[in-house]
Amino acid sequence: MEYHYAIASHHECYVFCKATTEDNQDSRSRDVQNHSLAAFEIAYSFSYQKTNIGIASCKTILKIMRLVNLNVVFVSLLVLIEVVSVCNGRVLSPAFYRKSCPQIGRIVRSITWSKVAANPALAAKLLRLHYHDCFVRGCDASILIDSTSGNTAEKDAAPNRSIGGYDVIDEIKTKLEEECPDIVSCADIVALAARDAVSYQFGRPMWQVLTGRKDGRVSLTSEASRDLPSGNANFTTLQQQFAGLGLNIIDLVALSESEFRVQKWFKLTDQTVGTYIGVAHCAVFQRRLNATGKGDADPSLDPEYAQFLRTQCTTPPNPAVAVALDANSSVSFDSHYFVGLRHNKGLLRSDAALLTDPRSARVVKSFQGFHVFMANFGLSMKKMGVIGVKKRCPG
Predict the structure, then answer these.
(1) Between 207 and which of 107, 191, 278, 378 could a Cys-Cys bridge form, CB atoms 3.0 to 4.6 Å apart?
(2) Which sites are catalytic (predicted)?
C-alpha cells in the first residue's frame, strides 16, 4: 500500500492519499471517504500541534484508516480542511465572530483558564457539559435552560444531575455581553469553554472549534434520559446511538472515554460537592461483581480488580461509597485509561463493551499511544461539536 501526503501551513491542510489493495469489489465508497477524511484530519492535527510527521506516523494513520475493516479499492482525495457547514452561502467557521466580536477567543480563554487553574475539576465538568448538550437536540445550549413549573428541563434529568460548570458559562456570557451585546450564542460559549478547559493543561488549543451555532429554546428531561449513552450499555447500543448522530466507531471510543472516564483525568477534590471527581458509586457497577446472582464476577473483569472492588463495596451497596473510574488514575489528560481497559480493568459495563467488538478493540489498542489518542480525540470533539447545529449567518 502506498501513502503520499503533503501538509502546508496549519491554517490549510492539503492531503493527497493513494491507497490500493487486492480487493476491488468494495462498493462502500461513502464509508471509505468518511474514514479517509478522518485519517487526513489526524495528519492535520499533528501539523496543528507542530509535531513532525514521519514514516511511523504515516503508518499509524493508515492503520487507523483500516480499523473499520474497509477494503479500499482506490482512494484519491485532495482535501482542504477549513470549514464544514454552510448557512445560506455562509459558513460555520472558526472566524464567525471575526468582525462582530473579535475578542471572543481571548475572553473565553482568559476566564476558562483562570477558573480551571483555581479548580482543575472544572475541566472535566465543562467538557462533559458540552458532550451532554450535543447528544440531546444537538449543540444548542439547551442544557443551560432552567426548568419551569410546566416543564422539567434537560439539566434536571438524572444523567445531568452531576453536571457542573454552569457558573463559568454564565460569567463568560456576562463579559461577552458587555463587550459584544446580543452577538455570541451560548452554544458557541459552551463549545469554546470545553476546548479551552482541556487545553489549559497544554497551554495551547488542542482542537479547532467552529462557531456560528444558534441557541435552542426547547429542553426536555425525557429527551436527555433517552438520548444520553448509559454506563451499562452494550456495544451494539452504543454504536447505534453514535451512528445516529453521524459518529463512527473511532468517535465512539474517543468520546465514550470523555463521557465516562474524562473525570478521572482530573481526580481532585471537588469543593462544591465534597466528594471526588472521577468516581462511580458501587450501585452503578454492582452487577459486574454479581453477574449471575451467585456472587460471581463478570468474566470480562480482571479477577484481581474484581476482588479489589469487593473490598471497597458492601452488599447491599452503600450509597456513600464510590470507587475511582480508572484503575490507572492520573491527574493529567492522558491515555492511561486504555492501558487499564486492555487489561480488563474497565469499571463500567460500557468500558468492557469496547472490547467485545474487534473494530473498537483495535481502536482501544491504538489509543494507548497518547499522540494517536489526542489527535483522534480532537477530531471527534470537532465532529461532535457540529451535531444538529442550528446555524446562524454572521451579521
Answers:
(1) 378
(2) 132
Q: Which residues define the annotated binding site?
A: 133, 136, 138, 140, 142, 154, 229, 272, 326, 334
Cell 514521519, residue located: 54
Vertex 59 angle, CA 55 and 64, to 5°: 150
The band of 324, judged by pLDDT with boundaries at 50, 70 and 90, is: low
The answer to whether the Cα torsion of 305, 306, 307, 310 is positive or negative is: positive
| Distance, first Cα to last Cα, the chain | 48
In 3D, which of 229, 313, 315, 237 has the Cα closest to residue 279?
313
Q: Are strands 275-276 and 269-270 parallel, antiparallel or unpaired?
A: antiparallel
Would you state the pLDDT for residue 64? Answer: 52
pLDDT, tens only, 159-205? 898 789 999 999 999 999 999 999 999 999 999 999 999 999 899 99
Domains of the chain: 14-82 (no CATH), 90-228 (1.10.520.10), 235-383 (1.10.420.10)
Is residue 316 reached through a cis peptide bond, with omega within 30 degrees of 0 on the bond before it? yes
For 49, residues 6+ apart whose C-beta sits below 8 A from its C-beta are: 204, 206, 375
Question: Is 245's pLDDT higher than 60?
Answer: yes
**More confident site: 104 or 64:** 104
- Binding site members for Ca(2+): 133, 136, 138, 140, 142, 154, 272, 326, 334
DSSP secondary structure of 202-241: TTS-SS---B-B-------HHHHHHHSPPTT--HHHHHHH
Crossing angle for the helix pair 166-179 and 186-199, to the nearest 10 degrees: 120
pTM for the whole thing?
Answer: 0.69
Q: Which is the catalytic residue, given 10, 35, 130, 132?
A: 132
Annotated active-site residue 132? The verdict is yes
For 133-143, write each residue's pLDDT tens digit: 999 999 999 99
Residues in the annotated binding site for substrate: 229
Q: CA-to-CA distance for 34 and 40, rounded, in angstroms?
A: 10
Q: Cα dist. 135→262, 303, 378 in Å? A: 16, 34, 17
pLDDT at 281: 63
Dihedrals phi, psi of 79, to nearest 5 degrees? -115, 130
Let me know the angle formed at the C-alpha of 304 by 300 and 309, rounded to the nearest 5 degrees: 85
